[in-house]
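Standup notes
- HV: blocked on the assembly model, inputs below
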Amino acid sequence: MKILILFAHPAFERSRVHARLLKAVRTLPGITLRDLYEEYPDFDVLPGQEQPILEKHDLIIFQHPFYWYSGPALLKQWMDLVLEHGWAYGKDGVALQGKYLMQVISTGGNAQAYTAEGHHGHAVHDFLLPYRQSALLCHMHYLPPYIVPGSAHIADEDLARYADGFVQLLQGLSNNSIDLKMLMRQPEANMLTGLPGLLPAPPR
Amino acid sequence: MSNESFFYQALVYLATMVVFVPLAKKLNLGSVLGYLLGGIIIGPALLGLIGQSGQDLMHFAEFGVVMMLFLIGMELEPSLLWKLRAPILGLGGLQVVVTAMLIGGLAMACGLPWNQALVIGMILSLSSTAIVLQVLTEKGQMGSAAGQSAFSVLLFQDIAVIPMLAIFPLLAPAGATVTAEETGSLIEHQPAWVKTIVVLGAVVGLVVGGRYVVKPVLHIVARTRLRELFTASALLLVVGIAVLMTLVGLSPALGAFLGGVLLANSEYRHELESDIEPFKGLLLGLFFIGVGATINFDLIEHSPWIVAGLVAGIMIVKFLVLAALGKLFRLSRDQNLLFSFALPQVGEFAFVLFSFSAGAKLLPQQLVDMMMAVVAISMALTPLVMLAFEKWVQPRFGNAGQEKEREDDKIDERNAVIIAGFDHFGTVIGRFLRASGVPATVLDLDSDRVDLLRRMGLKVHYGDASRFELLKSAGAEQAAIIVIAMATPEKNLEVVQAVKKHFPHLRMLVRAVDNADAFDLMNAGVLHIYRETIDTSLRLGTDVLEMLGRRAYQSQRAARMFRRFDEKSLKGLAAFRDDKQYVNAAKERIEELQKFIQADAYTNMMIRDTGWERDNAEERN
C-alpha cells in the first residue's frame, strides 16, 4: 500500500513527540510525508495541488496533536478545501473510493481522562466521530488510530517505543503484511504494537 | 598664443571650466552656457587669454562630438534605431530639405546667386548636436517624445553632412578646386564608383570589425586588469573609427555612432561608457569654450543690427519649420514646443562647412565671417532660449514647469474607487482590484506613461489629482474610496489636502515612503497609511528565516506580528517630534517587539498543555 502522511502541527518547532515520530519514519521507503504547515503557512490550501497526490496513494494518514478534541486548524482548512464535492463525495465524487484513512495523534490526557468518568468525559473514539464519518462520506475505510497518550510528560524511552511501534505499523501496512480486516476490528492501532493507547486493554 | 606652452593653455581652459561651469550651474543656466560665457570672457574680445586659437581649439574639440555620438550609439540598441527609422528619415529629412529651401529662398531674395543661397540654406538647416543633446540630457528629456524627435533630426543632419560635402564642389564656380586636404579624404580624386565601393567597404569593415575584432581585443585587454589600458583601448577605438571614416570621406561622428550601436549589446558597454564619458565631457566643454571665443565681436560692433537680424531671422524660420513638422508628426503641443525651442540654432558642422565653402571659393570670405558669427551667437543663445522657454513658455502650458503641458482628460467613467498615481505602486493596486472585479478610475500625472498604458489597453486618465476640477470630473462626489499613490510624498499631501477640503466623504488610503512620511500623513489626519516597503521587506525577512530552517508558518506569523506591532508603535511614535525622545521611545519599542515575537501565542499553548492530562475527578476543582 502506498502511504501518504499529512502532518499538521502549528508549533512543530516546539514539539517533542511528533519530532521523534517523524524522525523515525521520515526515511522509510514508500511513504510520502507532507508537512501541511510548512506547505501552506498562509492557509491557502490548493486543492489542485493536493488532489493528484491523494489519488496516487492508498492510505492517507492524518498525523497531528489532538487539539480541542480535533485536529489543528489547518487540517480542517485542508479538509474544507481539498475534499471537494464531485471529487471526494457527492455525485461522481469517487476519487477516494476504497482508500484508507487513519489518524496518528498525540494527546495530553491519558487513558483515564478519556473515559465517561474521566476529565474529558468521553472516549477518544467518540471525539473522532467527524473523521470517521468524513471517511465514510468519501467512500473510504477508516482504520483505528495510533495514539501517543500523555504527550506532555512522556519519558524518552517510552517515546522511543512509540516511534518504533509507528515504524512497525507503517512497514506492515506498506508491505501489506498487516491483515486490514483484523486491524479494523481493533479500537486502536496501538493493539498491534502492544503499546498502551487510550484504552486500558483490548476489548476481549 | 604662439609662445605659450601646453601647460599654460591647459591652465587657461581648465580654470575657465572650473570657474564658469559651477557658476552657471549655480545660476541655473546649465553647463553649456557656462562654457560659452567662459569662452567669450577668455576670448579675444575681453581678456584675450586665448587669442585666435579658438578656431584651432574647435577643430580639435569637435572630436568631443564624435565621442558623444559614440556614446549615444552605445545607448541605442539596433532595434530602437530601426524603430526610429520613420522620424529619422521623415522628420529629419523634411527638416533639412524644407529649412534649406526656405533659407536659400530668402537668401536669393536678398540678392545672393542661387548656388550661394543653396549652400547657405543647406548649412544653416543643421542644428547643434552637441548643444541640444547636452541641454536635453541635463533636463532629463532625452526619453521624451520631444527628445526622441530631436535626436532623430540631429542624426539625420549628421548623415546629411556627407552628401553636402559631396555636392558643394559641384556648386563651386568654374575654376575653383577643392583639394583633398580640406576633407582629409584619400579618395577625393577617385571616380564615383571607386568612392562608393570604398565607402561601402569601410562601413562593412566597421560592422565586421566591431563584431569579430573589437570584442575579442577588449576581452584580452580586460583580462590584463590594467584600467588605463582599457581606457586607452576605448579611446583608440573611437579615434580609429574617426580616422577610418575621414579617410573614406564619411563623417567621423556618423562612424562613431555606428560603432557605438555595434557595441550596444556588448558586455563592455558600461566600461566603455565610463571610460569615454569624461573625455567626451572635457572635449565638448572645450568645444563650447571655442564657440564662445570665436564670436567675432568686432563684426557685431560694426553691424549689430544686421547680425541680430540674421540670427533672429534664421532662428525664427527654423523654429517655424520645426513647429510645423512637429505638428505634422503628431507631437503633442507641449512636446512640440520643447522640440521646436531646442533645435533652432545652427550647428557646429556649420563651422566646418563654412570654412570649406570659403576654401572652395563658393562663398566670399566676408559673408563667411559674418555667418560664422551668426552661427556662434545662435548656438550661444540656445541655452538662453531654453531658459526663457522654461521660465515663460512652459509654465503657461504645463504644470509646475517640470511636466509637460497637457489638458486634463475628460473622464466618462464613474467608479467607487479612484486611484491617484499609477506608477509601479499604483499599478499593482489597480491590477489587483481589476482582477478582483472592482473597476477603478485611474489618474496619473505622467503623460508619457498615460499614453503607454493606454496603448496597452488600460483606461488611464491624465491629470493632476490635487486639483478640484480633475477630482470632480473623476467622479469624486460619487466615489467612496480614493487610493492616493502619487510618486512623491509632497504630491500625496497635496492630494490629501484637496480631498479633505472638497470631498471629505472619501476614505483615503495613502501611500507613504517611510516612517517620517507616515508621520506627516498622520498629522494631516490620514487614517489608512501604507508604507511602501514594509510588506515586501517583511516578506524577504520571512524568506530569510525559512532558508535558515525556521518553520514557514512560524516565520509568517512572526512577520505579521511584527507588522501589527510596528504599525501600532508608529502611531505612538508619531507623538514624539523631538529627536532624542523619539530615539529612546523607538529603542524601547524594539526591545518590546523582540519579547513579543518570541512569546508567540503557541508558546503559552504548549506550556499550558499540561491542563489536558489531568485524569481524575479529585484533581479537577
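- HV (later): unblocked. The first strand of chain B starts at residue 417 and ends at 420. The interface with chain A takes residues 550-557, 600, 602-603, 605-606, 609-617, 619-620 of chain B (CB under 8 Å).
- Next: hand off to the docking folks.
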